[in-house]
Amino acid sequence: MSASVLNTLKKIPVPLFGTAATAFKFGSKKVSSAPRYAQWVAPVVAGGLWFVWPAVDEEWKQSIGLGSSSAAPEAKSAPEKKEEPVVLSAEAKEKIEKAYVVETEELSDDEKAVLKAVGKGDFSALEKDWDSFQEKASIPGDGDDDDDEDEEDEDEDEDDVSRCFFDFLWSMCCFVVFLYVQFLFSILHL
């Protein structure tokens, strides 16, 4: 390398290295040792794909020709049918027209009085309801079925999470063993 290029590289600042000349020397040493690590390219790529491939979109996999296209053969083999217009009865049309209309019930005089009192900040009319609810809620064994179902759902969720975690650990262990075997082969030159 000519002296003028080296002097120019010494003047160019580069983050982490100080100057471009230092970065160039570092890079050239790493490139010269690259053939030593060439045998690790395939295991690293395979391991990376092992974890990344399930997360890749199915449409993209099919677009590059590597995904399973289960919908494609069905579409080709099925003859094209003309869509027939849907005929609705008068009752169905009426239900569709009224589907978005919200039906409101008229409040009783007692309910109106309670709403008026609550609007003023007086909750004494609701205290009886709250007390009866508290008594019903404090009776053991009554209405605990919902709690049992919730606990069962939580247990199933925990089982699913632990199963996924152990699957991940198993995959990691297999990958580490694979890399270790590659390392041993590189040391023993087999």
Characterization of this structure:
With 190 residues, the protein is mainly alpha-helical. Helix content is 65%, strand content 2%. The chain contains nine helices and two strands. The protein has a two-stranded antiparallel ribbon with strand order 1-2. The radius of gyration is 36 Å and the shape is elongated. The two termini are 39 Å apart. The model has no long low-confidence stretch (mean pLDDT 79).
Query: What's the total helix number?
Result: 9
The unreliable regions are: none
The portion of residues assigned to helices is: 55-70%
Strand content: under 5%
How do you describe this structure in short?
This protein is mostly helical. It has nine helices and two strands.
List keywords for this structure.
single chain, 190 residues, mainly alpha, two-stranded antiparallel sheet, 2 strands
Task: Provide the fold topology.
Elements: H1 3-11, E1 13-14, E2 18-19, H2 20-32, H3 41-52, H4 58-63, H5 71-77, H6 90-98, H7 109-120, H8 127-137, H9 145-188
Antiparallel strand pairs: 1-2
